[in-house]
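Help! Submission page says 'invalid entity' but I think these are all valid:
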Amino acid sequence: MKRTVLAHKFQLRPDKADLASRKRLLTGIAVLFNLLALATDGQAQVEIPVTKTFEPGDTTPIWVSMSGFTGEAAQVLEFDLYVQGFAFTNSAAAQYLISGSNNGNLQGRVTDPHNKSTLVSKAYSGASLRRQAHAFADDFVNAIPGHKGVALTKIAFKNDTGKNSEIYIADFDAHNAQPVTSDNSIVAAPCWVPGRQALYYTSYKFNHPDVFYHDIPTTERRTFARYGGSNMSPAVSPDGSKVAMILSKDGWTDLYVCNADRSGLTRLTKSPEDESSPCWSPDGKWICFAAKLKERRSLCKISASGGELQRISTVGVLNPTEPDWSPDGKWIVFTAMMGGFEICVVPSQGGKVFELVAGEDPSWAPNSRTVVFARRHGGGRTLSLLDVPTKQVKDVSRFSGSSSQSQPSWAK
Amino acid sequence: MKLSKFSKVILFGLTLSIPVVGCKTKPISAVTPLPQGSPTGQTVQSGNGKPIIDDGTKLTSNDIQSTAITDPDKRKDWPRDREIFKSDTVHFDFDSSVIKSDENAKVSAVADYLKANGQDAVEIEGHCDVRGTEEYNRSLGERRALAVREELIRLGVDASRVDTVSFGEDRPADPGRDESAYRKNRRGEFVLEKHQTLVGLNSPVNNDPSK
């Protein structure tokens, strides 16, 4: 026990009993010098860690072993790592060894047994044990090149009691859920303002589907769009300066965009056909949405300043809807309506579709690999998390008084 | 005169050629112009990357004009009657916003009422079954309401007297999970907005959506 408590010190003062580790350390330094020599030689043989482009649903998880944690801390760590592409095995087969303790505060250590390096060795204090475990999970994930931990992020979603629905926000695993609205009405389609604790969503509070802007810390909100007809599906641009929406004020359900101060409303499409669920490219140049072109449902994109409509091909599936563009710009995740509902990803320029799991309304995490989505069960929906590369799925916890949770939006 | 026309043609040709030269990897035919009322004869990128030429036979949208919907605050305080048109609820086929021929009489009945009661207005609520995603259904519900609205307008009701609102799948008529429930839920309901002459006539109307 003492050993794990003092874990964070081991990094500075190697254990005397483990003499071999010093030898390995020396070998490691030698290797490092060789690599440096190669690099200065200009041989370009050195592998620089880069973000790998993954094969959706067909990527091997990163194998880890975990020891020393109990109860809630162990559960949180297992959950956090599983939905970010890690899987658990014994210490002999693991690429990383996770150890630690959670008597009172949490202490944790991660080592790489192959090159004998320590990735993380930290003691946590303050906040809740849950939060300490999330922070440790993030420290580990962030220590792996090309990875970005999401364990301390938030989601917003629609919580349906069976009679009414309200917007809720929660930790990414749906713990610490709290209501944002109390309109005793219908709400829909929450969308986080990037980098801010603020949401856009639709509420029927005034007996009419209007788009609201809601600042969470101050609880101040204002009607953002209350035009004739329905005001639906708000999507805020990555820099927060513009909002795309589906409006029917001019007699058709069309895509519109306006500034965050409500000025400059522009109609981007003019079609009696259906348009729905806009989202933005991370560079803010494109708005992607579901539409019907030539009698065929497609994902489309249009310049945010208007212009030509371009089809994003989704080879292999029908009726794509609810697109969400990954923060790294590479992928679009969407729902294919083919009798059931399938979560799919396609390269953002279009092409071959990867069908992943049954579900709908996906939203990317800031790491561009995990998505939160809604999964139907009986009469309602449950939120679930999917690690796109490995196709690992886990439901988030449900809370009492809710018959259905849907339309998640991951804060970025 | 001739020369200036000619130079315009050259200029036009130049502007056209710039994107072709500047972007070799992307054929210009892959770009679909926005259907501005006339979507016929355009090329679009098909699923396998080959451009397909539309034959233009199925599309009629150049004949349709959309008509603006009145500000929702205009009739906010008018008494609403959900019962009067209860039996006129229009039902739709799965994933369709086309008014079926056997539903036409219901729309006509509402049109007749509105023509006889020239100051009243109507709000059409569009609803869906659960066999679509939520925001897809919210758009579909609105298109159902708009289709009924177009029909009322075609029958002679002034566009300013017909509002629409979509509830998507959020207010089912029957919460069941079978086809008989779904059939009842795919609908357009009429809510009468009774003309209000006295109450609130001289009181300031709050049209500022921020309030």
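Support: the input was valid. A stray whitespace character was the problem, and the output above is from the cleaned input. The longest strand of chain A covers residues 286-293.
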